[in-house]
């Protein structure tokens, strides 16, 4: 359930704010593609190993993701409802979102699928991290479910039906309710982003340098592949619409 579908008049982000982040995101994706090319080059050149340079690239990739989370947090502080259904992503990309980003446990799934061979100690640490991550995901999901129940309460739905019109002074009450929801939602998105970053950082802390290069390459490939598929589907849909 999208809360901004219940309260459609909540879209108050300015066009300049949206344009600025869309521009940032396009540049961010381009840089991610560049980093992926470097990661793949390392994987395809096993005889040219320089661990210090590989560690430096890993730091750059991790900093790149952190830069995205910081930029997203700034937008979220202005309009968290925009972050929950970001127009800079295709509709296909948005189907993968969990509180405006990938589910934290996805990082652990990628480790299991990217061809990294773990030692027994690494396997045990990954298993503990998986349990811990799922527990934190459940806590956030429970808080989100409670917030959604509040949105669907009869009094909130009645205010939503006013569509921004003042009825016996209730529009002020509706505005206050929306502001409270925005604060709660911004907090939950922040918790989810923190868990996403923390989980990836802990995975990197368990893996060796060579394993981390493979893991980060797989993460970037997945993200960029989903983006390409989404863009292709949008072009097909719009192309069909133009023909009809």
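^ Assign residues to that structure.
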């Amino acid at each position: 359930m999208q809360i901004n579908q219940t309260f459609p008049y909540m879209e108050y982000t300015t066009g300049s704010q949206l344009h600025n982040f869309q521009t940032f995101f396009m540049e961010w994706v381009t840089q991610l593609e560049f980093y992926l090319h470097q990661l793949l080059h390392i994987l395809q050149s096993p005889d040219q190993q320089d661990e210090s340079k590989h560690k430096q690239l890993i730091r750059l990739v991790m900093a790149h993701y952190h830069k995205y989370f910081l930029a997203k947090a700034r937008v979220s502080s202005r309009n968290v409802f925009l972050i929950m259904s970001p127009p800079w992503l295709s509709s296909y990309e948005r189907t993968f979102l969990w509180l405006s980003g990938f589910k934290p446990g996805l990082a652990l799934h990628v480790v299991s699928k990217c061809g990294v061979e773990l030692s027994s100690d690494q396997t045990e640490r990954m298993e503990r991290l998986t349990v811990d991550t799922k527990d934190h995901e459940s806590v956030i999901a429970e808080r989100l479910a409670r917030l959604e129940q509040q949105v669907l309460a009869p009094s909130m739905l009645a205010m939503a039906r006013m569509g921004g019109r003042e009825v016996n002074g209730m529009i002020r009450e509706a505005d206050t309710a929306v502001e409270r929801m925005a604060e709660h939602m911004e907090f939950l998105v922040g918790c989810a982003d923190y868990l996403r970053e923390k989980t990836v950082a802990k995975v990197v802390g368990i893996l060796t340098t060579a394993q981390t290069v493979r893991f980060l390459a797989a993460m970037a490939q997945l993200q960029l592949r989903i983006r390409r598929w989404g863009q292709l589907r949008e072009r097909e849909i719009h192309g069909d619409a133009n023909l009809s």
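Residues 1-13, 163-171 have pLDDT under 50 and may be disordered.
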